[in-house]
Design a protein that fits this description.
alpha/beta, two-stranded antiparallel ribbon, 5-stranded mixed barrel, 35% helix, EC 2.7.7.9
């Protein structure tokens, strides 16, 4: 049995260029799906998985993320003075709890890659296995994806990555597993190829934005030379540790939306709206049904 996963790293330093001009003043992670920012979904998923420490690797220009994550006492008091105590209670419940959660912010000044962002959290992670959550990969479902992965990691240890089947033409957008063996929701892998062309892809099993990683990955990240785009690639460091700790993909049960893209964000909003009676009239007026939306999201 492996140790419990207590820490999650949230890489949130990216500039969100695909959503400009909206992200000129508002971080991508604070863009809402209806009325809930992407970062809140990620935080809630981490909490449901038993995470006690959250490390946000951010950028100096994105101070609003820390303001969102922490409790805003002044705002709560203003809301209560205006008779909006229920709203104040809701916001306090969503914010980090100083009594049960440890929150750390680390600044990544230069865009040196996802691997570099994870490496910057090393001091706050220590020697235990830990999780990484990419907030713009929205995964909806019960139980949450990270909870499933934490439970799965207790069985297999090593590096565990969330994986899903993609269309052949989509492999060029993902890290793709080189499969050794598939059993139930687990896929043992001999390696991982970053963004292969369809004809070069070793499989169609793509890695998406949830990871549970052995802490030894920090040594691989610290000694790794820059890869594609001059960045420190997390996938390269994961691959470097396979012989030592192993690598497995885990096929989660939830529904994933790539909210780093405009089409994925739109699909997520339509999916949430379709499941909420408050928006039933609007959806019906435009002839939109849940099954249609989910089909669009899968394309």
């Amino acid at each position: 049995m492996t140790s419990p996963i207590r820490t999650a790293v949230f890489p949130v330093a990216g500039l969100g260029t695909r959503f400009l001009p909206a992200t000129k003043a508002t971080p991508k992670e604070l863009l809402p799906v209806i009325d809930t920012p992407l970062i809140q979904f990620a935080i809630d998923e981490a909490r449901a998985a038993g995470i006690e420490k959250m490390v946000f690797v951010s950028h100096p220009t994105k101070a609003s993320i820390e303001r969102y994550v922490r409790h805003d006492h002044d705002l709560a008091e203003q809301l209560r003075d205006k008779g909006k105590g229920e709203v104040a209670d809701m916001l306090q419940g969503m914010a980090a709890c100083p009594h049960s959660e440890e929150i750390q912010f680390v600044m990544q000044d230069q865009p040196l890659g996802l691997g570099h962002a994870v490496l910057m959290a090393r001091e706050h992670v220590g020697e235990e296995a830990f999780a990484v959550i990419l907030p713009d990969d929205l995964i909806l479902g019960e139980p949450g994806c990270l909870k499933e992965m934490v439970e799965a990691h207790a069985q297999c240890g090593g590096h565990l990555v969330a994986s899903m089947e993609v269309a052949p033409e989509e492999t060029k957008s993902y890290g793709v597993l080189d499969v050794l063996e598939r059993k139930d929701k687990f896929t043992r892998a001999r390696g991982m190829v970053e963004k292969p062309a369809p004809e070069d892809a070793p499989s169609r099993l793509a890695v998406v934005g949830r990871y549970v990683l052995d802490s030894s990955i920090f040594e691989d990240l610290a000694t790794q030379t820059p890869g594609a785009g001059g960045e420190i690639q997390l996938t390269d460091a994961i691959a470097a540790g396979i012989a030592r700790v192993g690598l497995a993909g885990f096929e989660f049960s939830g529904k994933r939306f790539d909210c780093g893209s405009k089409s994925g964000m739109l699909a997520a909003k339509l999916h949430m709206a379709a499941g909420d009676p408050e928006y039933a009239d609007v959806m019906a007026r435009h002839g939109l049904r849940t099954e249609q939306i989910d089909r669009i999201a899968a394309e």
